[in-house]
Amino acid sequence: MKVISESTAIEEVAALVSESLSRAGITAVLSGGGAVQIYSNGLYMSRDLDFVSPAPVKEIARVVKALGFEPASGRHFVHPTCPFTLEFPPWPLAVGHALIHEWAGLSVAHGVIQMVTATQCVMDRLAAFYFWKDRQALDQAIAVARAHPIDLDAVRRWSKAEGQDVAFEEFARNCEQA
Description:
By secondary structure, this protein is of the alpha+beta class. It folds into two domains: 10-115, 2-Layer Sandwich (Beta Polymerase, domain 2); 118-176. Helix content is 46%, strand content 18%. The protein is built from seven helices and nine strands, in the order αβαβαβββββββαααα. It has helices at residues 10-23, 32-39, 57-65, 118-132, 135-147, 152-161, 165-176; strands at 29-31, 48-52, 70-73, 76-78, 85-87, 94-95, 98-99, 104-108, 111-115. A hairpin with a 2-residue loop joins strand 8 (104-108) and strand 9. The model has no long low-confidence stretch (mean pLDDT 93).
């Protein structure tokens, strides 16, 4: 099935890509802004889908070309009518210094998306806030935490392990203000 111009919903495109890769035996986990958009119910908008994958780019290209995506540069792919760019950052899947070994299979109307959990998504955004002082990433983490249940204790432990106890408190205070 090709991604067509009507396939503008992020969940639809992500499910098509995720299921196609899974059927080909390729592990690829959606993270980054695409995960934020899905978990924040569209409060944050993204124009790219980041699927972290250990697969060689040639294997990935074979699958996404069948969906109508063409190589743009490196591990990036574009589609002539789809508004989303695909990016395939290399493995390992991690947030800060913590490797991720398990993730979610999120069922949406168009299929199942292999993606980080809501808690892992929050950690991913907090990593950008902690290490790059990206305030927009903090806002994204808060939006996800307000829209989906997260394991706040796990985020607290991870933040402490990353040496970010004080910055975590800012996140936690903002989540309580909802």
